[in-house]
Amino acid sequence: MMSEYLNIALPKGRLGQRVYSLFEQAGYDCDDLKTGDPGRKLIFENNLLNINFFWVKPSDVHVYVERGAADIGAAGKDILDEYNPDVYELLDLKTGICKMAVAAPEKFIEEPDKVLRVATEFPNIAAKYYAGLGRDIDIIKLKGSLEIAPIIGLADVIVDIVETGTTLRENNLIIKDIIMDISARLIVNKSSFNFKFKRINELINKLNFNIEKIKK
Predict the structure, then answer these.
(1) Which helix (H) or strand (E) holds 32?
(2) Do domains 6-96+183-215 and 98-182 have the same CATH topology?
(3) What residue ranges of the chain have pLDDT lower than 50?
């Protein structure tokens, strides 16, 4: 019988539900998680498989994994690049697919000799991107509804996640450049990977097998 538990942190919301489906298809399911209300109950246990799932805020998953409260987690590539946690990134889960993009009003014309005002929730990603271009910028850190910033003159452009582009179009913004592709990634605590290698490696292999099968 398996003696060691695996603690798995899932991001709340649609992404977490998609990621859980991948675990379920790989044979790592939990009946309580499917029947419970994820808005109320946060920890779900399968004593037969010796696994615990728990819901956390998407931007906090990497903290739980890095600190060892979770052995495994699923986090967006945007979060990983923004915070650069000390974890192993071992598998692209091929879900939660979107892009990090620069967007601006349709009529915006950039003036290279002026400092560019950039509104974003991802200051580190934005800073790295513009540093690579040798561009002077003023980062304005905001949370949510970034599209309004250039409309009311707070910023020139925004750096944000784009999935369908509908919100941009509705606010007369267009994509100027794509910074990176984003998807959910499986991350693992470094110590857990050493001490629970057999179980974690088995899980990764099963997840990867099912992801490849879905692609076909």
Answers:
(1) helix 31-35
(2) yes
(3) 1-2
Classify 98-182 by CATH class: alpha beta
Give tens-digit pLDDT for 136-183: 999 999 998 899 999 999 999 999 999 988 999 999 999 999 999 999
Q: Which two tokens stand for residue 65?
A: 């994994």
Domain 6-96+183-215 falls under CATH 3.40.190.10: yes
For Cα atoms 188, 94, 2, give the angle at the middle one, nearest 5 degrees: 40
Per-residue HEC secondary structure of 135-194 comes to CCEEEEECCCCCCHHHHCCCCCEEEEEECCCHHHHHCCEEEEEEEEEECEEEEECHHHHH
- CA–CA distance, 170 with 167 (Å, rounded to integer): 5
Q: What is the pTM of this model?
A: 0.90
